[in-house]
Amino acid sequence: MSSLLKQLRNTLCKFSGEDFAIIRLCSKKIQWYFTFIGLFVSAILICCFISALYFTESLFHNIVVAIGVGLIWGYIITNLYILLLYTITPTLLPVKQRRKSKIKTASFRFNASMILRVGLVVLLAIIIAQPLNIFIIKPYSLAFANDVKLLMGNNYRAWSITAIVVFIFISPILLKYRIRKLGEFYELKASIKKRIVIDDYQEFKQTYSLMLEKTIERYNEAVWTRLMPLLNSLQKVSHPSYRQHFNIIEEELTVPSIQKYEYWADPPYRTLRKSHLSGAHSEQDFLTHIYKNIH
Questions:
Q1: What are the pLDDT tens digits along the chain (295 aa)?
Q2: Among the listed residues 26, 35, 45, the one whose alpha carbon sits nearest the alpha carbon of residue 6
Q3: Which H/E stretch holds residue 287?
Q4: 252-280 burial by CB neighbour count: b if 16+ within 10 A, else e?
Q5: pTM, whole model, 2 decimals?
Q6: Which run of H or of E encompasses 40?
């Protein structure tokens, strides 16, 4: 592959809305799928620009204003589309399941949220397609709204153009579900996200433990400050009693090594509860159950 074609492919992969750092670690087949997604996104940008350009020019008859509005409109709609496309992704981190069914990354979860997002994509495509219909077919009416009504009501070519634009908007979604079935990209992305979450959680636990230890250390220092005058007075009266109480207080005020207790079996995802205590017939059994779950 030539360097120019490779650079073009990498640029289109970045337009797909997914993490290019992960895409480049996948196979060539996965990369080409994201290349086609980026190609469709580029086509969406062009369609949005031409649609807004023609609509604005027909209203104001000013090509400079039309170009400016076309660029802004194309940028806004394309970014909104990429955001919607990014949200159409399988569940990558563990979540609590109400049913005992394992979610697969290749499954299509056609729920209310998915219907809303796909419906918004189709709505955007239909809106973008109407100025393109007038631009391509060029009816004879002078009113823009009448042109749209006339074309959609009487011209099959307008419906064909609208269907093509809808297809361009829907195709990246279909390609992303095809990528799910290949079973490489989202598995790699899930492992990276899990590693990030686990590393951040371990860092949080260390910070949490250090904060508590520092708090206990400050408390112990305050206690020593209040008790030392009393211990000094006791030393003058009875040195053995002073030494005995000093050792007891010193042992009690030792700063322990604190670890955060986990209430869940799979922290930090909190999807599996720990098994309930069973067979604890003595205090020793109870303590063993507690301390074996401290990580």
A1: 678 888 888 889 988 888 888 999 999 999 999 999 999 999 999 999 999 998 888 878 889 999 999 999 999 999 999 988 888 887 777 777 655 545 455 455 667 888 888 899 999 999 999 888 888 887 755 677 777 777 777 778 888 988 999 999 999 999 998 898 888 898 999 899 899 999 999 999 999 899 999 999 999 999 999 999 988 888 888 888 989 988 999 888 888 888 888 888 888 888 877 766 555 566 666 666 666 655 4
A2: 35
A3: helix 283-291
A4: eeeeeeeeeeeeeeebebeeeeeeeeeee
A5: 0.72
A6: helix 28-60
